[in-house]
Amino acid sequence: VAFARADMPPRLIAFDERVFRQRHKYEIKRSMKNNEWILVIKDVQENDIGGYSCQLNTDPVISKTGYLRIKVPPYVARTTASAVEVREGQNVTLSCRAFGDPPPTIVWRRQDRQIIRFNGATGYGASVFNGSDLTIIKVNRKHMSDYICIASNGVPPDESWSVKLHVTFEPVVVPQAEIVQVALGGQISLVCNAEAWPRPLVKWEKNGKEIFDSSSFSLSHQASEKYHSVHILTIKNVSKNDFGKYRCIAINDNGEHFADIVVKEGNLPNNKVALMFTEGSGYMDDDSGDDDDDDDNDENKTIDYNDNRSNTSSYELQNSSNFARKLEETFQIQTKSGRLLSLHSSQPSSHRKGVHVNDNSDYNDCNDMIIIVFCFCFS
Fold it and tell me: Which residue stretches, if any, does this entry annotate as coiled coil (predicted)?
């Protein structure tokens, strides 16, 4: 009895009980009772797949061929790219090549579990995509993510492969505020939000001169996981020379962008707090309000800083007890509960731009109130 690989040409493995090829791989077993000859293949691998012939040296010769087929768990070819870079607005195809037996199926998903948009940032999409080639039309920065291809064929374990998609685009810089105010001797931080990939080089300038870390300035930044970053310039111990226009400039290989922030002198000393709210948004009751409400509700009112129904104005809350001595004029407004608040202006009425609240008012019962300040306009 002879065993051979049914290749072209055939390769003899064993004759009778003697193994001629890869003795660590093959073993011959014989059962005299059943008159059986058995070829044992050890440590079966994918390259063992194929035909095996058993031949009886009779006259005439009798042979029979059997085929070995094994199930192979899926595996992703290591030639599959792990990172792909594309310019925003172009098309891109992410490919995943996987093998196994049976042939595996491939499913794509985003690592962050967001929808995969196939046509632009707002086009149709799905949470998963079936197929080895994932094509995205008109790539947008929102497509930037890790994409996972998962190969499976019913033979555990499944195998996954991560492809990082980088979408390159020129910087966009947006200031947190275009105009800021600060008093002499104070400190203020200018904030720029940047979007760019690759991550940009960001610098600050004033009058065309770059600003560096020093005793007068402090530079800092914080980057997010993707393409967002926040850049902060802090001006310490503000002097008159520090007022003016500052420029935040972001640069990468795709271009550059800048934003300007103007620093002006404010009329608030350091012990004042600037409150921002929206005019005409109903923070104080007008004549058309409901007069049946409980008076105690005045102490529980809060200010909604997110109401955008009209332009935002700045109102000043005076915390200094010495400020009362400097007041030139006094006004009074009445709260809904009937309490009187004493409000003062340190400027003549023809130049009045704000209203100051004296915290040394004789109305001590107002101490626990949330004080809401109006703006008085004079012609």
Answer: none
> What distance separates the 2 farthest-apart alpha carbons in the chain?
131
* Domain-wise residue ranges, the chain: 2-68, 74-169, 176-265, 272-366
For the chain, how are helix, strand and coil distributed in percent, rounded to 5? 5, 50, 45
**If 0-12 CB within 10 Å is exposed, 13-18 middle and 19+ buried, where does residue 250 land?**
buried
Q: What is the pLDDT of residues 297-347, one digit of tens each?
A: 333 333 333 333 333 333 333 333 333 333 333 333 333 333 333 333 334
* pLDDT of 33 higher than 70: yes
Q: What is the DSSP annotation of 4-17?
A: EE-SSS-EEEEETT
Q: Give the Cβ contact number of residue 286 at 10 Å.
A: 7
Look up the pTM and report it: 0.58
| Whole-angstrom distance, CA of residue 300 vs CA of residue 291 | 16
CATH fold of 2-68: Immunoglobulin-like (2.60.40)
CATH top class, domain 74-169: mainly beta
Architecture label for domain 176-265: Sandwich (2.60)
Handedness of CA 293, 299, 300, 303 (dihedral sign): positive
What percent of the chain stands above pLDDT 70? 70
> 34 near 40, Cβ under 8 Å?
no
Mean pLDDT of 187-212: 97
CA distances from 26 to 4, 5, 7, 72 (A): 11, 12, 17, 21
- By DSSP bridging, strand 329-334 and strand 105-110 are unpaired
Whether 141 and 198 have beta carbons less than 8 Å apart is answered as: no
